[in-house]
């Protein structure tokens, strides 16, 4: 009888411990990863801004910006993405590579896809939840919304064209012509992929945007592009 | 388990309470800093790229357009 009581009590304590650990894991995943990733990504943004130098100044050296970009090492930040729809101060680093570790540090560029402003598809992935959730509000993007990708050489301005919801194996969304693998690209596209539905990874929410303009850094970014669009219902 | 731990902690009960709190914080710290980051990549809700790195999300035959 005593042994049975001891066994039941120990089992209860194990269950309580497991429950507490699961609760802790959820707290860590949904709250703490945002805290640490936001801190880290802000540091990356400041470092990038410092490295890019002030806007509106003539460039020093760097004759071929795209050639420089294509040599970006894996895991390194090379651009800043600004999306006025997500807020006037929204700025997230874009890093090379889409492994889980890189995805915790910002927006991840699919290696082998085009670089910002190049003909083809500049394809990136970002977290919808956790790790700073850069694409948390991706479903708010509407046709015509501006996305600015800032590199050392230029401001590359894209406008949202459309979105699709696909399964994770539908890699044709990051083809040089999105959703048309094998076709020869004639335009510069931007593709953003994120988890869908939120808190799940069973599908991907994918937004396609088309190049509007490439503005040299020396000219500065016109303020009109950074205007926060009005909230619309629907 | 917890009863045995309580009995093994030295000192009068306020000291025991303090020591228990320190132990709890230590466990949380170990979880947050090492355990959870290590197991998170295996959770089924952490994919957001197409052809995700998660083994159970990777297609059996990687399509050629994937880069």
Features:
heterodimer; A: 234 residues; alpha+beta; 8-stranded mixed β-barrel; 3 helices; 8 strands; elongated; B: 67 residues; 0% strand; disordered C terminus
Describe this structure in words.
The complex is a heterodimer of chains A (234) and B (67). Helices cover 26% and strands 26% of the residues of chain A. Chain A is an alpha+beta fold. Chain A has one domain: Sortase, Chain: A. Chain B has one domain. Chain B contains 2 helices and no strands. The A-B interface holds A 10, 13-14, 17, 21, 24-25, 28-29, 32-33, 98-100, 103, 108, 110-113, 125-130, 135, 166, 168-175, 181-182, 193-195, 199-201, 204, 206 and B 1-2, 28, 31-32, 36, 39-41, 43-54, 57, 59, 63, 65-67.
List the helices and strands and how they pair.
The complex is a heterodimer of chains A (234) and B (67).
Chain A: H1 2-52, H2 65-69, E1 77-82, E2 91-96, H3 100-103, E3 107-109, E4 120-125, E5 146-150, E6 154-166, E7 188-196, E8 203-216
Parallel strand pairs in A: 2-3, 4-7
Antiparallel strand pairs in A: 1-2, 1-5, 3-4, 5-6, 6-8, 7-8
Chain B: H1 2-8, H2 13-39
What's the helical proportion of residues of chain A? 25-40%
Q: Low-confidence stretches of chain A at least 5 residues in length (pLDDT < 50)?
A: none
Count of helical regions of chain A: 3
- Rg over alpha carbons of chain B: 22 Å
Radius of gyration of chain A: 21 Å
Helix percent of chain B reads 40-55%
Structural class of chain A: alpha+beta
Task: Give the domain tally of chain B.
Answer: 1
**Low-confidence regions of chain B:** 52-67
- First-last Cα distance of chain B: 52 Å
Assess the beta-strand content of chain B as a share of residues: under 5%
């Amino acid at each position: 009888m005593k042994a049975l009581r001891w066994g039941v009590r120990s089992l209860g304590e194990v269950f309580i411990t497991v429950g507490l650990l699961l609760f802790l894991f959820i707290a860590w995943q949904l709250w703490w990863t945002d805290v640490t990733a936001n801190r880290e990504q802000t540091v990356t943004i400041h470092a990038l801004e410092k490295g890019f130098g002030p806007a509106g100044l003539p460039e020093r050296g760097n004759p071929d910006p795209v050639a420089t970009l294509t040599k970006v090492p894996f895991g390194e930040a090379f651009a800043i993405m600004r999306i006025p729809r997500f807020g006037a101060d929204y700025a997230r680093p874009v890093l090379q590579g889409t492994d889980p570790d890189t995805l915790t540090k910002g927006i991840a560029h699919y290696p082998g896809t085009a670089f910002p402003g190049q003909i083809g598809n500049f394809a990136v992935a970002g977290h919808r939840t956790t790790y700073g959730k850069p694409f948390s509000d991706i479903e708010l993007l509407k046709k015509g919304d501006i996305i600015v990708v800032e590199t050392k050489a230029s401001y590359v301005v894209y406008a949202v064209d459309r979105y699709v919801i696909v399964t994770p194996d539908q890699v044709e969304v990051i083809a040089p012509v999105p959703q048309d693998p094998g076709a020869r690209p004639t335009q510069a596209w931007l593709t953003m992929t994120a988890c869908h539905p939120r808190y799940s990874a069973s599908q991907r929410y994918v937004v396609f945007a088309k190049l509007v303009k490439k503005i040299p850094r020396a000219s500065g970014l016109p303020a009109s592009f950074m205007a926060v669009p009005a909230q619309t219902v629907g | 388990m917890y009863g045995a731990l309580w009995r093994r902690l030295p000192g009068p009960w306020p000291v025991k309470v303090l020591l228990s709190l320190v132990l709890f914080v230590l466990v949380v710290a170990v979880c947050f800093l090492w355990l959870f980051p290590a197991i998170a990549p295996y959770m089924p809700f952490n994919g957001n790229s197409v052809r995700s790195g998660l083994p159970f999300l990777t297609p059996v035959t990687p399509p050629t357009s994937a880069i």
